[in-house]
């Protein structure tokens, strides 16, 4: 466990992000930002992700003392330029996976880290793409039964059986696909004054 004099806070209630940050062996607490995540008219996916990621931090920053490091993140999946939401229902998950069969989708993951002590901050955007195999109706239904990916954009969990759906994955940081790019998290923490290996 790394010793820190500053409080590290993950601004997220996502169990996936919490599990990812735990991999770094850092002690942290969590807070849940309450913001409107609606997309603005004609807002590009990259602009949307940056705005929401930073808005999460802004919503929490004023509640913190001046000795914290805050991490916020947001993610969206895109297909043919459209943002793909979480399916929430089995029927929607089936529709999404049928639509993606044989196709490529791209994930954009924004990360914002701010140090309230020295006011240093860093925003980064990680991209990762997934190409699906040609999926049969039975494979799609069976996958959803097993993994229940109803709270995941794109209707899959890459950290479990989702890999069985894929033909190819492309990107420099596979953890960005899970919701928190750990390579960029480490880069950003160092940039604002915390070395995870110190």
Automatic annotation (TrEMBL):
Protein name stated in the entry: 7-methyl-GTP pyrophosphatase
Similarity field: Belongs to the Maf family. YceF subfamily.
Function: Nucleoside triphosphate pyrophosphatase that hydrolyzes 7-methyl-GTP (m(7)GTP). May have a dual role in cell division arrest and in preventing the incorporation of modified nucleotides into cellular nucleic acids.
Domain of life: Bacteria
Predominant cellular place of this UniProt entry's protein: cytoplasm
EC numbers: 3.6.1.-
Signal peptide span: none
Taxonomic lineage: Bacteria, Pseudomonadati, Pseudomonadota, Gammaproteobacteria, Oceanospirillales
Species assigned in the record: Marinomonas gallaica
Compartments where found: Cytoplasm
GO BP terms, alphabetized: nucleotide metabolic process
Gene Ontology, cellular component aspect: cytoplasm
Cofactor: a divalent metal cation
Reaction equations catalysed: N(7)-methyl-GTP + H2O = N(7)-methyl-GMP + diphosphate + H(+)
Positions marked as site (Important for substrate specificity): 16, 75, 159
Active site: 74 (proton acceptor)
Keywords: Cytoplasm, Hydrolase, Nucleotide metabolism
Pfam name, any one: Maf
Single Gene Ontology MF annotation: nucleoside triphosphate diphosphatase activity
